[in-house]
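Example record

Each entry pairs one chain with its bound ligand, DP6.
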Amino acid sequence: MEAASYIPKNQNPKLGETAFWQAPSNIALVKYWGKYEPQIPANPSLSFTLSHCKTKTKVTLQEKAPHLGSQVAESQNGTSEFSFDFKFEGTAKPDFHPKIKAFFNRVHSYLPFLSEYHFSIESENSFPHSSGIASSASAMAALSLCLLDLSGEFPEKGDSFYGKASFLARLGSGSASRSIQGPLMQWGNTPSIEASSDITALKYEEIHEVFRSYQDSILLVDKGAKVVSSTVGHGLMENHPYAAARFAQAHSQIALLAKALKSGDLPSFIHIVEQEALTLHAMMLSSSPYFILMKPHTLSIIEKVWAFRKETSVPLCFTLDAGANVHLLYPEQQREVVVQFIENELVAHCENEQYICDSVGTGSSPVFE
Ligand code: DP6
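Structure tokens for the complex follow.
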């Protein structure tokens, strides 16, 4: 699909209507790191969709008039303006306005009604904020789903609806394109996956049963703000000395992972997933300027995971996102023994002994009040 095919012929928004959606977070197995304008990934990625960590967003379409505390912004071409207000967990958050305004600008041609109404946006996360869990993916996905729903372009919420929602979410945050459906999603054109696309993510379902209920226990090692944002990190892949090799590697990793996902080959799965996590951080260590997002506790956990796996043969592995937290991935069947291991040996490495147990999920859904 071309981006132009997402320009609507017909939208039918209705004043006073409310859309209410929840969208999950996701954890990448093959990592997206590096991008070009407009939000085109430098390499393909593949992620598990999560179940419990999610954002719920409600958007109400109101008449456009000067609203107290609302954001009124000129669009890029200066011909129209946006009007919205935003509350996060019940409190007005004007510091989020620039992000929303930039997003509205980016998706305006695909949702022309954005400049014709006032949008009242309310959002909340199921996970503790400042837990260090990236929330831009679930937040941008939930907002995109609400806006597309309000547009009235898709009375049926089928593949076309979710495809365009992923396209819009990508323009808000790359990884958000993968927070729409489940159990896995793949984003970025790559020869081994038919229909793969740089502009929208696809539901990925060719998987062995074991992965449908895979667990992700997120160890909250450091809840502070990151020293370098993902956006800056992506930018540092431009002129990175190892960029070309990394981007090529991601294509082969996806092809290998696809085989392991299909057959249920856990040793191969573990090898690819851990290599991806460490490669992501290796890119950060070798950027210019270089930076480190792992903390000493991150490394202690990794060493303990490796020792535990060696001793017990439990197929437990880790992955990392752009931060210090560690995601532990394992089959549901091993839940008891892994939770015991976390309690006995790993909570000591977590800030306030906090961790979140999540699992693979089925994707976004409307919320009924
Ligand atoms: C390390 O999607 O947060 O989590 O597109 O700039 O919003 P933007 O970046 P973002 O980057 C996520 C990077 C990652 C890997 C991944 O999720 O694939």
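Residues 28, 31-33, 45, 134, 136, 173-175, 230-231, 234, 280, 321-322 surround DP6 (CB under 6 Å).
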